[in-house]
Amino acid sequence: MALLGGTAVHDHVALAEIELCGDLIIAASSAREDRLSLESIDEVLRVAKERDRFGG
User: Fold this and answer.
1) Residue-range definition of the domain harbouring residue 53
2) CA 17 to chain centroid
3) pTM score, two decimals?
4) Does residue 46 fall inside a structural domain?
5) Phi and psi angles of residue 10, each rounded to the nearest 5 degrees, phi first
6) How far from each other are the two terminal CA atoms of the chain, in whole angstroms?
7) Residue 52 lies in a domain
8) Does residue 24 lie within any of the structural domains?
């Protein structure tokens, strides 16, 4: 938790986005090809899991 002007700032959405970006960077750096496929990106970002969770 960071302190900004004496006020605690904690943004769960921002932290989740940072974690997902980190996961993408790790996946991209270990990819055997030059680019990640769309399916690989969806897997890293857990798109199907979220889609199922929200009934999409």
Assistant:
1) 20-56
2) 5
3) 0.63
4) yes
5) -145, 110
6) 34
7) yes
8) yes
